[in-house]
## 1
Amino acid sequence: MDLLNTLVDKGLRREVPTRDEALAVLATSDDELLDVVAAAGKVRRTWFGRRVKLNYLVNLKSGLCPEDCSYCSQRLGSKAEILKYTWLKPDDASKAAAAGVAGGAKRVCLVASGRGPTDKDVDRVSETIATIKEQNEGVEVCACLGLLNDGQAERLRAAGADAYNHNLNTSEATYGDICTTHDFSDRVETVQQAQAAGMSACSGLIAGMGETDADLVDVVFALRELDPDSVPVNFLIPFEGTPLAKEWNLTPQRCLRILAMVRFVCPDVEVRLAGGREVHLRSMQPLALHLVNSIFLGDYLTSEGQAGKDDLAMIADAGFEVEGTDTTTLPAHRRDTADATEPADAAAPADTDAESATVPAPSEETRRDLVAVRRRGAGTDLPPNA
Ligand code: SF4
């Protein structure tokens, strides 16, 4: 298939595909799926070998957010019956983080609900970062606290945060459909503040919110332009009690096509399989390891993932290996120098049929029973899943 040969060649040269090529990946048929996975897998192996980086989420503060992101179970007015609690104490957060590290995670992601931190919150999180680093040697810490004000990124960096996560989530054109309390440019600005403060930027997307193929390509190209070091790809978990509860749009095959497209557009970046993998990829999860080089271990912020030991068994069974703390995730050219990749071809015309096509609903039965609200780990008396 000419398209796939072209995309592999470009991926190995770190060259950006055209928008039409990215759209064409999303439009491939199920008969072509294994060829697509094999092609994107070649790019993945070139830059990351067979390594899988494990990341572990600690929800520092859960629920009761004043923002209205419609995909989120913690949003304003959410009726989802999730755990709700205020800031974890540094020791409790560190204990949760230690469970993830013991399970093989090399990065801990400290997340708090809310529009953004107050200066007092930054103090609190700084103390938590110090405690975690003291008690877990060599661990990378990523903070995810929402929109940042001036000076907060620098303070988090000085406190030891290695990375900052803030997702773009969807295309700029449709951002207003999923959130009205902040906009796309706010999110871009926070990612840029994190980068300017010297933190590794982590920014990704959520697929399955009713977006078009063009939206998906737009957000991935916007991410390439922003140039984060890691790109988490979430698949919407349609929580009951949120506005997107009825958005069951994804099939395992579509998830794999989306991941392949992200890999082709961001060939040498840590592409991380994030929330929703158990719900939407189901038994096809191992194939996704050929596309991504990073996953979350165990549970998510407000929902439960598969058992941590099953994640590890899946990685081993699929012929991959957990990345150790002695290995640097990113290829040398991304670590050592300002990125030498070419700018995203964001100005390419957007006029194909696939561009405007909406995603057909999946024909097979959806598996709503796989959505399990988190009832263990941080904020509970039960041990965490790692
Ligand atoms: S700001 Fe964060 S926690 Fe709040 S509703 Fe949006 S995604 Fe959820």
Note: Residues 65, 67, 69, 72, 74-75, 113, 115, 146 surround iron/sulfur cluster (CB under 6 Å).
## 2
Amino acid sequence: MTRDDAPDDDTERLLLAAAHQAIAYRTALPAHQRAEAGYAACVAAFDDPLPEEGEAAPDVLAALVARAEPGLHAATGPRFFGWVIGNSHPVGVAADWLTAAWGQNTANHFAAPAAAAAETVAARWLLEVLRLPAESSVGFVTGATMASFVALAAARGEVLARAGWDVEAQGLFGAPPVRVLIGEEAHASVFSALQYLGFGKASLIRVPADAQGVMEPDAFAERLARDVPEGAPLIVVTQAGHIHSGATDAHERIVPLAHARGGWVHVDGAFGLWARACPTRAPLANGVEGADSWATDGHKWLQTPFDCGYAIVRNAGAHRRAMTIAASYLPPVSEHERDPSHYVPELSRRARGFATWALLRHFGRTGIAAMVERHCAQARRLADLLAQEPGVMVLNEVVLNQVAVRFGGAADEGAGDALTRATLAAVQEEGTCFAAGASWRGRWILRLSVIGGSTTDDDIRLSAQAIIHAWRRVASAAGAL
Ligand SMILES: Cc1ncc(COP(=O)(O)O)c(C=O)c1O
């Protein structure tokens, strides 16, 4: 007997063992939020010689767990505020286990009817919950970076088509120049997506941002008038949810101005677009629905496991033209069918629709609204608790779920950077909660992103205490107070 035709009870034992490992991991309260082992230690742990002979499945599983677990951050835990990371909700994990076990190649509706159908329905639900135009098409991609890439490919094709140029057929060489306006504090991933599409960073028209990192609408209007010739193909990239402040561009002003010049507006709303799902926060993103395309993530506020993002495009024809893959061996699609691969760059791909469908069904519209509301209130509370402490400053207006914190009070820039970095290191070392750092407007910050599905008010209180104690230790060692 070879390993490939192992009897069913072996399969059952293996998958149950994996499930038990996963359950043990998810139900144990993490003692420490940061991974015990860093990258070099993890490489050393994994770095055995390539085996000549295969190893029995249970041994492989045990070896994987032993090597991986020390290098796992508690990203699924309630006090993990690093980067902008959802919790991989158990319902999404369960759906993803089945996705892997079912092994469907979700390229098209014939190869994977159930997976394609789940995407079709999940796409409709996403448009409803985010209150975006019902005629839009949705591509299920790896994350917001690829979502922006896909949507901006559709934008590029459409604005060039309006200028009489077929970029899908003719390519970019010799095409009329496309003007791209973007806020100077747009997320790094959008600059990358533009770069993949031939819009090099130096070619972009950058619009100055205000203290919250959003585009100054007057500066936007001025750049548009000054730098974009009448009739030139135009793409405008806006943001719903700035990575540090959570702030959203003034879409009610920007979108009409861009449209009046025949432009396409793309919104990077990796997490901030979900404000639209919450009645009390939705006004922050007023006017976003007037845009032409949107990028957002499932693996942030919807809590799907990685990787999962959505490219949403109002003009479904432009979306398909930018992405469609056709070959004789691939089945044709009729008007009432939808092939997932027609909306994304990949052909073979996993069935992201299952986890999305499962989580939308599990939370429901009101559950998502309540979660977004809770996280925003918790972020506000965290900011208030921290700001009460002498020497701690919250730099952003906490309108959503992001809190940007600076330590050192009136210390000069360099000293404040050093104190902030030291406090960040102390917070990570102590381990009650996890935060990450960033440089924002020339100053180092500790950034807290409240987005994990399981975070309670108690977690917020404990985390604020831990951060304040870390700061006090740093401050007293540095004689800063
Ligand atoms: C505002 C914003 N845009 C884009 C991205 C990129 O998203 P992803 O990592 O899912 O590609 C992020 C990630 O945090 C983000 O916060």
Note: The radius of gyration is 24 Å.
## 3
Amino acid sequence: MILSSAATFQIVNAVSRDEVSGGQSNVIAATRLPRRPTRAASGLTVRVKKPPRVITSAARALGVGVSPRYLVSPHRYLQSPHRLSQSPRTPKLFYLGSGSPRQISPSQQGLGSTWTVKAIVTVRRKRHSSVQERVAEQIDAASDAAGQKVVLQLVSNFVDPKTGVGRRSNRAPLCDWAEKAGIVADKVQYTANFKLSKSFGLPGAITIKNNHQNEIFVENIALQGLPIGTVYFPCHSWVQSKFQDPQERVFFSNQPYLPSQTPAGLRDLREQNKVSFQGNGKGTRKYWESIYDYDVYNDIGNPDKNTELSRPVLGGNAKLPYPRRCRTGRPSTKTDAKAESVLEMGQNYYVPRDEVFHENKQETFVGNTLKGLVHQLVPSMTKSLQAGHEEFQSFHEIDKLYEEGIKLRNFEGDNELLKVLNVSQMTEKMQQTINKASNVLQYAKPDILSKDRFAWLRDDEFGRQMLAGANPVQIQRLQEFPPKSALDPEIYGDVQSALKQEHLAGRLEGLSVQEAIDQGKLFMLDYHDALLPFVDRVNVMPGRKMYASRTILFHTQAGSLLPLAIELSLPGRKRVFTPGNDASSYWLWQLAKAHVSSNDAGFHQLVNHWLRSHAVVEPYVIATKRQLSSMHPLFTFLQPHFRYTPEINASARQLLVNADGVIENCFTPGPVSLEISSAAYSSLWRFDQESLPNDLIRRGMAVEDANEPHGIRLVLKDYPYASDGLLLWDAIKTWVNEYVSLYYKDAKSVQDDAELQAWWEEIRTVGHADKKGESWWPTITTPEDLKGVLTTIVWVVSGFHAAVNFGQYAYGGYVPNRPCITRRLIPEDGTDEYLQFLQDPEKFFMSMLPNVQQATTTMSVVDTLSSHAPDEEYLGERARTNWTNDPAARDAFKRFSRQMDVIERVIADRNRDPFLKNRAGAGVLPYEILRPSSGPGKTSRGVPNSVSI
Ligand SMILES: [Fe+2]
């Protein structure tokens, strides 16, 4: 940057000129200006017309600036001119951040004195300690009184010339630990007192050494007594006992710095702190560690238990590519050296310590029910339900799940399921009740049955759910007819479609097929290529039968999306079904729709939900912790968007997507589930097309149009997911743009940010190593590139995930509407099965659906997955106060929050618009999934900041 003025200018508030050029931009004071422009601190421009004659030593010591007319900002380089008194006797001191300057009164300046500074440390207590921990608490209280304390030390932004690193304060213990040992509270505040010499400078970091036996959770630290006011240090982290980890923990203040702006006194800590999270790729991770490392998916199978539970390693394999997961480093299995051993039931899996679900009153819901779900619920249900593998006999039996519930077995007051479910919370929060007196588990009525009991049977509802249901992200505009397959006929046989013009003729409102295509009125739900390669492997398994489906839909003048033809494919065998005009063909049409819905349910769960919003995000989380310092403005920005993702993903690998887990048991693809997911990652997933506009354009559901507010025009205006999603997309984009613009002014500032470049490089080449050669990865060389990448990431973890996650019970909680598993193919005319079908079509339909156990287990799982925790953070919210001290960033976030309120109202209005028939009308469910806010529980609305369930 350039220092320019006609006067002589000298930077005085630095130990050396190097400090200034290294970015001490918030601690600048000036006495004399150079006569010519001088290259100085990166990211800093100082223009001073009449420099003050006097610079106080207090200004130098405290890291505040003195300027006669203009203020200096680390982010904005030059704030609006601020006229000051020119009297040299009354220099005025300012804290120099971006946004409005904060003036320090003369009484606050305390010139020439020694500062007494108090640290208020907020510690969150554990609510559920083990016996061992409770014993250690007693020992800690006693030993604390004897001198074994939690000790803090402040680190200055300034370098100590003697040590060459940031100046250190005195070491100060938390002085009131022992006396507060008996306090019963969620949070307790402790104090530590410091005496700072006037030459100390502004504290930019705090180290903590925990000499106790128990770990402690430090929520935040407020440093009081400094003339610039309270300085905050967001921590939200476990500090381990020195007996576990002898290293001191380091926490930085909430002043964001790009790497080049790092105060000289903090540079070494910034680097060391980042490296401390990276690990070395070796060893078994221990529960208390905070190591973020990568590994392939080698932890899904359980070959030691049964060779049939062996699963291929996903990732690091050209045939089975996959995103990386957080490394746990457990020993190999005995039977397969490449597979990581499986934990026994009840053993805790490793996730970095600070990523574990927090344990407090509000979070108990998430912790208990989710962990209960993945650890114990499913096995317990198997044991506890009276039903075994029998099937529903009628629709009435399914309805009874909501009205009367399902009988539990062996109820003697301490039924295993009851213990797992923690009844008091489940009843209130999940509306899934267990009646102790009658020994019955009762399910909440899903939304699909709430307004129109028979809506699910109708074709228009079948089409509506593709635009506003549980999986509204798959439908595409038909571009050619008949559709073509890209599969290799050498391997998969004749892959020509069996769909003919006559299947559609007469039902296109007078249009020919080509005219309907040209007018953008034909659509397709296509699982042919994604599933056909797996069909044979699935269908040899007992109790699992699937097709690879294609559904052609027509958008009528009345505004409905009607399915006109369904093609169901087996390798070498294709059948086409159309809506029937007689009893038999009507029932066959219903069976065909059920198979399509089952295809949709499986692909939705494995690809659109698990892969595209859970698995692909994990490398972003890992890279963020490894490559971005917590003082980096992007780390601060991203933090709420990665909340709880490592834990929920680790939970899923433990009991949802693992061999013999919920997904394999309850969804048709069974053991090939994750291979389908890998195939989709291989052929479909592209980062650049995960942005909402690009995804819509890829699927032909929108076209570029510069005249439209979003830059694209929806082919179907009444596409609730897309139209509401674009509201969120634009709001996220604006917020990202404003935030990024605060810190990056030009391409050079982006290219020179070593942490940012390392972060993106690692995401592309390590976290997504199997995709590193793809040309579609965006590079980040300009602020615009960065804005695009961040907007996509935030959209995926918020709006996209919400859209595919929180409608699961509303539509999947009623298995006839969305069968998670299909157990029979559709009978062929002339067979005994066909005769059975003719004699009792309802019974045949039931025999095709999940059996009672599969259905009820899936209902419990999707019930939990569709629920919000009471402490959920939604878009536009940040639970952590003082997340940044940058007022410009806080102002931008306030605008984002207000925009969420606007979107709430717009969506509510849309749901009342009678012309939007996919979200309003007689018995039609409103589309509320992308309304940003929600209460706790299963609400079918609400967009959390992160993938947390
Ligand atoms: Fe999810």
Note: The two ends are 46 Å apart (CA to CA).
